[in-house]
Amino acid sequence: MRRVLILPFLVMALRFAASSQDAAKQVDEFIANEMAGQKIPGVSLAVVKDGKPLIVKGYGFANLEHQVLVKPETIFQSGSMGKQFTAFAVMLLVEEGKIGLEDKISKYLGDVPAAWSNITIRHLLTHTSGMTDYPDSFDFRRDFTEDELLKWAKQVPVAFAPGEKWQYSNLGFVTLGLIIHKASGKFYGDLLLERIFKPLGMTTARIINEADVIPNRAAGYRLDKGELKNQNWVSPSMNTTADGSLYLTVLDVMKWDDALTNRKLLSTASYDQMWTPVKLNNGKAQHYGFGWALREVNGKRVIEHGGAWQGFKSFIARYPDNNLTVILFANSSNTNPARLANHVAEIIDPRLRPNTIIDPDPKFTAELRQLLAGVLKGEVDIKRFAPAVGQALADPNDRLIAHMKTIGPIQKFELLERNVTDAGTVYLYSAEFGSMTVNLLIRVGKDGRIDRFELNPD
To answer: What is the value of pTM for the model shown?
Structure first.
């Protein structure tokens, strides 16, 4: 009797093992093809399923000059993936009463420009403060003290009133790091080490320091006219800011993921706040929480964020409804980490493949793709846009267009949703560029002109 009962379970276990092996093989083939196509020297990948490691593996080279292979212990730079740790540190201080989410930042920074007077901590965490980014003239090779950095930041004009719009802002998170220091009395990197990295056993997680001798550190690369070059150098102080200046391994981030899954170190209420889409002043929700991008795929939640810095790309995609997390690092600036991480998730769990719809008007989609390509070349067909949208897209200084010009040509353009509303027809496309995948939301008004044009990074 006992043998009869055990047999079905044994058969299911063998089937699961076989399917897991098949998925791992597919992942290996996919990563290898992407590395060849995108000229990526090395990739480090971790897949966690049902709280257990399914794949933890390195591919290619951590250092081309010395022919050192990537392994799970290889250390990469975080880029903006580090923003989630800054946000977490803020929430630790919020729970201690040292920071308030609705506090004006002037409470911590003293005299601020008039345009900053109504900016709150929440605005900085959610990229709704109106702050922008490093201007083209910024000298990343100059060392700044924190006071000098704050003085410089105060001189950068804001783009809009707090809460009016959503616009990604590295400068906002740089400012959060300064506030953490003033509120806690500790440099934000020291606070991360003491309150997050050590308690969670993230033994190799730390602030970037290129002077120190650090075992297993990868080299970062960039493509220059099709040829791989070493990463560009920046000053030591510009590798310590809170917008994403960390060394991490997939092993570190797996421990971080476990803490997030089991809601360690913070209360459930704080986690809920971090993963709730921010609402603008007009009540409209945006797909961002506190240092995390938020979306859904086929009705399933996705909590994710990528990063890019000094020849490195990073991505963490958490699918809590599917008990799945994908963590990926690469050491080439031309990598599209969202494409890699999301496709790995689709291989492991096919339910995460986006359900594209039958395009009712492929001619319009083709025209729209061509229109977008023209925008990226600086050729804006003003007749196709409402005045405000056309003006923004034609502005050579517009940050959105300037950023899109850096992420490569359009490689894929697929319709995900189409909805007819009282204001017009709303289209949601998945647009895959050379180094980034984005969701593009477009609304065509009753007059036939495009009156909404928004990008939400995947």
So the answer is: 0.85
